[in-house]
Design goal:
The chain is an alpha/beta fold and 280 residues long. The protein is built from ten helices and 14 strands. It has one domain: 4-Layer Sandwich (Metallo-beta-lactamase, Chain A), CATH 3.60.15.10.
C-alpha cells in the first residue's frame, strides 16, 4: 500500500471570510502543502507548493499584481527540494510530479524536479498554455514557473482509462489508476479551476482523498459551507464548485476516506495515517 508524507511549503494569508462565509475579517494563514506518495511503482509528488521561483517570477511586470493580491511567506528552510532531501529523497528520485491544476501556489517548484515526468489534466493544461500578462494573472497562472521542456515531459491523466472505484467511495464512482498498482486513482473535482483534479490514495489504514483546492478550509466540506461570492471572480465556476463540495461533504459524512486539502491550517485535522515532515 502507498504512504503519504505532507510537507508545508510556504504560506499566504487572507481574510477568513473570503474562504468561508460568515467567518469574519480576521486574517487566516493558509499553508501551501505538497504530498510525497510512496507506491510500489515509485515516488509520486502531488503539487509543489511555493518556491523561490515564485518570488523571482512575480517581482516584475504585471505578475507583481499576483504577489500584491496574495502576500506570501516563504523561507529557504521551507524549500520542498530541501525538505525532501532531509527526508532521504533526492529530486531525481521522483518518478512523477502530479499537478492538481496550474495555479502558481501549486506549481512554483516544478523547475526543481527536472527529471520527473509531469502529469495533469488536458483541459487544465489547455486552459493556461500560451497565456501571459493580465490574462495569465486572472487565471492565477505565472508562465515563468513552467520548466522550458514541459511539452516534452508532460502527459495527461486522460490517457489512463477510467475504472470503477470501490462503492465505499461514493459519491465518487470512477477514477484513473495512474499508478498502475491500484494505489493512486485520479478523479475530477471541477469548479475551482479548469481541469482541477484530486487523487484517492490507498494506504494501509484505508483511503485518503487529496482534494487540492476543492475546499480551502476543512469547515467547508465538513459543514457544507462555501466561500465568499467574491472568490468566484478567480474561481472557475460556481455551480460545479458547489457540486464538488457537496460530494466531499457526502464522502466526509460516510467516514470511508480521509480528505486532505492543500491549505488546511489546523494540526488537529491531520490524520494519524499521514506523516508530517519534520514532526514525530
Amino acid at each position: 500500500m502507498a504512504s503519504i508524507t505532507a510537507f508545508r511549503v510556504g504560506h499566504c494569508t487572507h481574510p477568513s471570510c473570503m474562504v468561508l462565509k460568515g467567518s469574519g475579517l480576521a486574517s487566516r494563514c493558509f499553508p501551501s502543502r505538497a504530498y510525497l506518495i510512496e507506491t510500489r511503482a515509485g515516488l509520486y509528488l502531488w503539487d509543489t507548493g511555493y518556491a523561490e521561483h515564485f518570488r523571482t517570477a512575480t517581482s516584475r511586470g504585471v505578475y507583481r499584481m499576483y504577489a500584491w493580491v496574495t502576500p506570501i511567506s516563504f523561507d529557504a528552510h521551507e524549500s520542498l527540494q530541501g525538505q525532501l532531501r532531509a527526508h532521504g529523497v533526492a529530486p531525481g528520485d521522483i518518478y512523477t510530479l502530479l499537478l492538481s491544476h496550474f495555479h502558481a501556489d501549486h506549481i512554483a517548484g516544478m523547475r526543481d524536479f527536472p527529471g520527473a515526468r509531469l502529469m495533469c489534466s488536458k483541459p487544465g493544461w489547455d486552459a493556461v498554455r500560451g497565456l501571459s500578462g493580465v490574462a495569465a494573472v486572472r487565471q492565477a497562472f505565472v508562465p515563468e514557473l513552467l520548466p522550458p521542456d514541459i511539452a516534452a515531459r508532460l502527459s495527461f491523466v486522460e490517457s489512463v482509462p477510467e475504472t470503477a472505484l470501490p462503492t465505499a467511495l461514493q459519491p465518487f464512482t470512477m477514477g484513473r489508476d495512474v499508478s498502475g498498482t491500484g494505489e493512486i486513482y485520479i478523479v475530477d473535482l471541477p469548479g475551482h479551476a479548469v481541469g482541477h483534479i484530486g487523487a484517492f490514495v490507498l494506504q494501509d489504514g484505508g483511503w485518503t482523498l487529496l482534494a487540492s483546492d476543492a475546499a480551502w478550509v476543512p469547515e467547508s466540506f465538513q459543514q457544507l459551507r462555501g466561500p465568499s461570492e467574491l472568490s468566484f471572480l478567480i474561481q472557475h465556476r460556481r455551480a460545479p464548485y458547489y457540486a464538488t463540495l457537496n460530494r466531499l461533504h457526502q464522502l466526509h459524512r460516510s467516514g470511508n476516506a480521509q480528505i486532505r486539502i492543500t491549505h488546511e491550517d489546523t494540526l488537529g485535522y491531520i490524520p494519524a495515517s499521514i506523516t508530517v515532515a519534520g514532526r514525530p
